[in-house]
Amino acid sequence: MVNAFIRWVGNLSRLFAIMATFLIIAAMLVVCQMILMRYVFRLPTIWQTDFVVFSATAAMFLGAPYVLMTGGHVGVDVIELMVKERTRARMRIVSSFLGLIFCIIMLIASWVQFHDAWSGNWKHSSLWAPPLWIPLAALPLSFGLLCFQYVAQILALVAPGGKPTGDHAASANGLILDDLVELPHTKELPR
Known about the structure:
Distance between the termini: 53 Å
Number of domains: 1
Organism: Microvirga makkahensis
Shape: elongated
Pfam families: DctQ
Number of strands: 0
Membrane topology: Multi-pass membrane protein
Structural class: mainly alpha
Domain Tripartite ATP-independent periplasmic transporters DctQ component: 28-158
Number of helices: 8
Transmembrane segments: 12-39, 51-72, 93-112, 132-158
């Protein structure tokens, strides 16, 4: 049951990552089109800048659950490398709970913002004036899935039979950075 939930959340995170990829590609193509229109044909651009900003921002948020799942986030692990595995596991559980709490708060706040934009028919202030609920929809979606991804990560760390994900999978399988690269702190330094 736990592994099925972790797999389901992982597949959903992969789907969101694919959506994020397409949004980045679309933003890149629109930037090229905007440059062509402005500098080659000397025509004004109306919607392109807004589209690129909204697409790139949505891609960043929608891709976040996949980054969490794969352990691709930027982190400072100096303290984690200095402690024993048992303490390291506890630190991962605590940090996952803190991340979950933050994502729950952001889910609620972004849902309120999205709902206000939807019900108030908010429009962007540009000439294009797209409805703001469309770009804002990425926020509650991504924070909702981030909550699920944190729950899956916590379950993988604490449940018997759970399989760790991301960084935790590598260390649980006995493969950590120290095994790949010999760092100065992993061997006895000369005196």
